[in-house]
Write a structure and sequence with these properties.
Layout (H helix, E strand, L loop, with lengths): L9 H9 L7 H23 L9 H36 L11 H30 L7 H23 L6 H31 L2
Helix pairs in contact: 2-3, 2-4, 2-5, 3-4, 4-5, 4-6, 5-6
């Protein structure tokens, strides 16, 4: 496994995703999709900053730019953490039933559930920011902001599946993570729809 996905070219990452290997898998892909959403929203901000028509929003746009940079980096780190966490689960699951090392498997599964849950939460935060940006950014890039919102919501929904398939093996922590993720998914869908409606209504 590479030191970090950020060191890979897009072609290399796609190759690794498609290889017959458990990682990087769906969890890492979901996180990277969220990172792309953050990057696309940052482009919208970049094209808006410095414009006279948006001078009153300059400080908020500067703050948003910083948040989007940090969030993109966080999403890539979460992609790497997901691959590491699931890689450990996969390794432990392949051990014989009587192998004492399997004793840590429930804890490893519980840890693997927390990573996609974090991704879902970050995506909802992104969508909250996108709602604010919809009324304070260049209308000519409203399609890009809409796409960024769709990507963030897709990242959240995709990450939910990695929680759902592992929740049973994580015991109470898994059940709690699943319940929290369901609530966040509902919020994600609503906020995404709101961003899209704001982008459609932009003059």
């Amino acid at each position: 496994m590479p030191d970090g996905f950020s060191r890979l070219t897009i072609d290399d990452f796609l190759q690794k995703v498609g290889d017959k290997s458990p990682t990087p898998g769906g969890g890492a892909v979901a996180s990277v999709i969220g990172a792309l959403g953050a990057a696309l929203a940052r482009m919208v901000v970049s094209y808006t900053r410095g414009k006279k028509a948006f001078a009153q929003h300059e400080q908020a746009l500067s703050d948003a730019d910083r948040v989007l940079i940090n969030t993109g980096g966080l999403m890539v780190r979460l992609a790497e953490e997901d691959a590491q966490a699931y890689g450990l689960v996969n390794e432990l699951s392949r051990l014989p039933q009587d192998d004492p090392r399997r004793e840590v498997l429930p804890g490893a599964i519980a840890a693997s559930v927390q990573v996609p849950l974090a991704v879902v939460a970050v995506c909802v935060d992104l969508l909250r920011l996108f709602e604010r940006l919809a009324g304070s950014t260049n209308r000519h890039l409203r399609s890009d902001l809409a796409i960024a919102a769709i990507l963030a919501d897709a990242s959240a929904r995709a990450s939910w599946w990695n929680i759902a398939v592992n929740a049973d093996g994580a015991g109470e922590r898994g059940a709690a993570a699943l319940a929290q993720a369901r609530g966040l998914l509902t919020e994600s869908a609503k906020r995404c729809a709101h961003v899209l409606s704001l982008c459609e209504a932009a003059p």
